[in-house]
Write a structure and sequence with these properties.
Layout (H helix, E strand, L loop, with lengths): L1 E9 L5 E8 L5 E5 L4 E8 L5 E3 L7 H6 L8 E2 L5 E2 L3 E4 L2 E4 L8 E2 L12 E5 L2 E8 L10 E10 L2 E10 L3 E2 L3 E2 L17 E4 L3 E2 L13 E2 L12 E2 H5 L4 H6 L3 E5 L7 E7 L5 E7 L3 E5 L7 E2 L5 E2 L6 E5 L14 E2 L4 E12 L3
Antiparallel strand pairs: 1-2, 2-3, 3-4, 4-5, 6-16, 7-10, 8-9, 11-12, 12-13, 13-14, 14-29, 15-28, 17-20, 17-22, 18-19, 18-21, 21-24, 22-23, 23-29, 24-27, 25-26
Length: about 350
């Protein structure tokens, strides 16, 4: 495995940004930048042997800075997804966060991890990014030291998270890579066949906050468990939850008690590329790119509505305010650890 480092640009605040290109003998190439500790390219062979870049993104730092709302490929924190009304109580004290998604707090706020330039170093099989989120950043308590390590092995990309705080806080980390297995910018993902290892999901209100307890997917458009199905066969069905999310934008409750488990499998019949996502997290947010607006991305590609999907492994949205959900509290001095692996193969393998 090789890592190649080159300049990628300079932020509007004058910070230099570098690109890290990871390649290996299995013809998997992943490009990363330290602005947002993000994925900018995932290049894999399709069924014809041609190289396909399946990750949405931009060619410049300016592109990422100018489109903060899409979060293409970014590390998300301190808290992925939404916190209702931007507030929570911890140890008897109420904390108030920025409201950057209507009445709610989203993806760590306007100064979240996606907007920061991280420190970076190469490791034996990849790149490790790190930063210290100071006490009070975006309203969160505690000074939080965070590490995100990307590793290549065969045709798999592993993302490993670690974090420690000097005071009790909350943590929920994920990656927001947008995937189109037809190739970035190539139509919609309606033909992608999806399977999610979950018999239940979390219904949401009109502001995308979970309503409470999980409900079964059986008999609903959210059932990708009984049999793999084309996304396009489900997404336009008349369902109040699809209307609430503008499509799929819901957290699935993953099955199984194993620490590391399969979360989802998705494949394109056009390219034959299959992606399998496995994780230590209890949930996966399936987002069908409902709010892409025709942005011009890498190489002039146009990213239109539902031109990608996201499978964001994470704890549940608003978990800090819903005691029945797995806890997102990180106690002082304890270590948060999480891992997600995206493995690529061909559907005939």
């Amino acid at each position: 495995m090789a890592v190649t480092v080159r300049p990628f640009g300079v932020t509007k605040d004058g910070e230099s940004v570098a690109e890290y290109m990871l390649t290996n003998e299995s013809d998997l190439t992943v490009c990363l930048i330290d602005y947002g500790a993000r994925i900018t390219k995932i290049i894999v062979p399709d069924k014809s042997g041609a190289a396909a870049d399946v990750a949405l993104g931009y060619d410049t730092v300016e592109g990422y800075e100018g489109d903060r709302g899409s979060y293409f490929g970014a590390t998300i924190g301190r808290f992925a997804n939404r916190i209702a009304r931007g507030k929570f109580t911890l140890n008897g004290r109420e904390y108030r966060l920025a409201l950057n998604n209507g009445a709610n707090h989203l993806h760590g706020g306007p100064g979240g991890f996606d907007s920061r330039v991280w420190s970076a170093k190469t490791v034996a099989d990849g790149v490790q990014f790190s930063r210290v989120s100071p006490d009070g950043e975006e309203g969160y308590p505690g000074s939080l030291t965070v590490y995100v390590t990307y590793r290549l092995a065969g045709r798999s990309l592993a993302i490993e998270y670690a974090a420690m705080s000097d005071a009790d806080t909350i943590v929920n980390l994920t990656n927001h890579v947008f995937i189109n297995l037809n190739g970035h910018g190539v139509g919609t993902v309606y033909n992608h066949r999806l399977m999610i290892d979950a018999i239940a999901y979390l219904p949401i209100d009109g502001t995308s906050i979970p309503l409470g307890a999980p409900v079964p997917v059986a008999g609903t458009p959210f059932d990708f468990f009984s049999v793999a199905a084309a996304i396009g066969d489900h997404i336009e069905l008349n369902d109040p939850q699809l209307a609430a999310g503008g499509g799929f934008d819901h957290n699935y409750v993953l099955d199984g008690d194993e620490y590391f488990k399969r979360a989802a499998v998705v494949e394109s019949p056009d390219t034959g590329i299959r992606m399998t996502v496995s994780t230590t997290e209890p949930g996966v947010q399936f987002y069908s790119a409902n709010f892409l607006t025709g942005q011009t991305g890498k190489g002039g590609a146009v990213y239109r509505k539902r031109g990608a999907l996201c499978l964001e492994t994470q704890h549940y949205p608003d978990a800090v305010n819903q005691p029945s959900y797995p806890t997102v509290i990180l106690r002082a001095g304890e270590m948060f650890m999480s891992s997600t692996v995206m493995s690529f193969s061909l559907s005939d393998e």
